[in-house]
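Reply to dn_fold:

You asked what the input looked like. This is it:
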Amino acid sequence: MIAPELKQRLAQQQAPTGFPVMRQRWAELGFFHWAVSPDIIRSRLPEGLHVDTFDGKAWLGIVPFLMQRIRPIGLPPLPWLSWFHELNLRTYVYDATGNPGVWFFSLDCNQPIAVEMARHLFHLPYQHARMGSKISDRSVEYHSRRKSHQSVKAEFKYPRPIAPKPAVIGSLEWFLVERYTLFSTDQKGNLHSGRVHHEPYQIEAMSHGECSTLPFSLNGFAEPGTPPVSLICANPVDVTVFPLRLLT
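and this is what came back:
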């Protein structure tokens, strides 16, 4: 039998009811994760969210990737607006009803209009940045320089997947990547949740990867003294985005 908690997590992979507001593609994904004490994360979460752990550990993830074909439902993508870079620092949480999701500490982005729209429509902590990448058949070279901290640059180099496959249900990789809910708070401190839907990730463990830990210090965390525990690259996914729902 499948444990109730696992059933609840699996249910998140189903498309939610209601009408979506946006479509997008996430591509050239790199996932770099470190295990940290749950207390470190707990002190940074808003009321109503709880630290989600695997083997008793909380997790901080740095995720560089490309946003592609971003557009509202019913409209085509625009060349000057719908393609850009994004770099996240995130952790994993669940709400009062046990629904698992992602809490973002920052989302650096090089599309100014997208930054302002995400801040106002989804209450997410987007940051203006200068970013770029070089994609080859085998690897991704990626860099980001936040405009509020232009003297420092985050740089990444990681392979593209060769023979990816879905994460094993219940594994650490599945816990980290198969997330379909985001949480955010507005200026009044109200907690919101938003759903996305896409096919399960096709992932592959990285044999090597270079990852800047600058997002840790930019968000007030101590620099990790060890390499990431989990390094994953993934195939692109086509994503449907649903509107926020007020929780409190």
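The chain has five helices and 16 strands.
Hope that clears it up.
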